[in-house]
């Protein structure tokens, strides 16, 4: 079994899900009392949020690159960045270490295509929906991407940071996300990527008329594949 190095804390809520999914899946595959071989460095999310708001992605990248180096020095074989948004600086992390980084977009696009879906709506932070790093990589991998309107993006982003990242799941916010999904469906989306690791706390498969692709779940399961390969 390979050792997974998880860069977590962005947010702590979603990092808990990664840890739980990876260990439960490892046990399901190996049986007995097996669990995953994991090293984790959980950062102070407030520092990351402040850098995001300031647009200082270079400083954010340097911070996470240092986290990656710590995990590599401790013996990690594969890195998992337990957040979607910070994959914006995935290349910085990759350049800082000699071990592979399991990219969330690659894992998600592979799962989308396996379901025969060619065009998806994307829900995530404002950075993920509008900065292009996520959509462009999905397109290169063969999946067309639609995003909500700017007004919808602003509210989706607010709900993530003011509610979901703090463990608050509100019925009104769930209804809002469902409305956005319906509008994406009307515009031609065949599925929806939950491109934020917290959105799966709010929306489940049976909540929407389209197939949902929970990136956190997909990414965590891909991490198990990598660890056991």
UniProtKB/TrEMBL annotation:
Pfam families in the record: Asp_Glu_race
Gene3D superfamilies listed in its UniProt record: 3.40.50.1860
Domain of life, source organism: Bacteria
Alphabetical keyword list: Isomerase
Family: Belongs to the aspartate/glutamate racemases family.
PANTHER family: ASPARTATE-GLUTAMATE RACEMASE FAMILY, GLUTAMATE RACEMASE
Protein name: Aspartate/glutamate racemase
Organism: Neisseria dumasiana
């Amino acid at each position: 079994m390979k050792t997974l190095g998880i860069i977590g804390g962005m947010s702590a809520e979603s990092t808990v899900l990664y840890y739980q999914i990876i260990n439960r899946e490892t046990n399901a595959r190996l049986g007995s009392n097996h669990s995953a071989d994991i090293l984790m460095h959980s950062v102070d999310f407030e520092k990351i949020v402040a850098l995001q708001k300031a647009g200082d992605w270079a400083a954010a990248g340097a911070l996470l690159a240092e986290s990656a180096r710590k995990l590599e020095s401790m013996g990690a074989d594969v890195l998992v960045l337990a957040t979607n948004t910070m994959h914006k600086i995935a290349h910085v992390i990759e350049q800082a270490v000699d071990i592979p980084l399991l990219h969330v977009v690659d894992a998600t696009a592979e799962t989308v295509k396996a379901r025969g879906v060619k065009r998806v709506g994307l829900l995530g932070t404002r950075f993920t929906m509008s900065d292009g790093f996520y959509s462009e990589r999905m397109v290169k991998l063969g999946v067309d991407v639609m995003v909500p309107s700017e007004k919808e993006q602003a509210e989706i982003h607010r709900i993530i940071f003011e509610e979901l990242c703090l463990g608050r799941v509100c019925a009104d916010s769930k209804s809002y996300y469902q409305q956005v999904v319906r509008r994406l469906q009307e515009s031609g989306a065949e599925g929806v990527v939950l491109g934020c690791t917290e959105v799966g706390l709010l929306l489940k498969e049976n909540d929407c008329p389209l197939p949902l692709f929970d990136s956190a779940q997909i990414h965590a399961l891909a991490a198990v594949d990598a660890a056991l390969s």
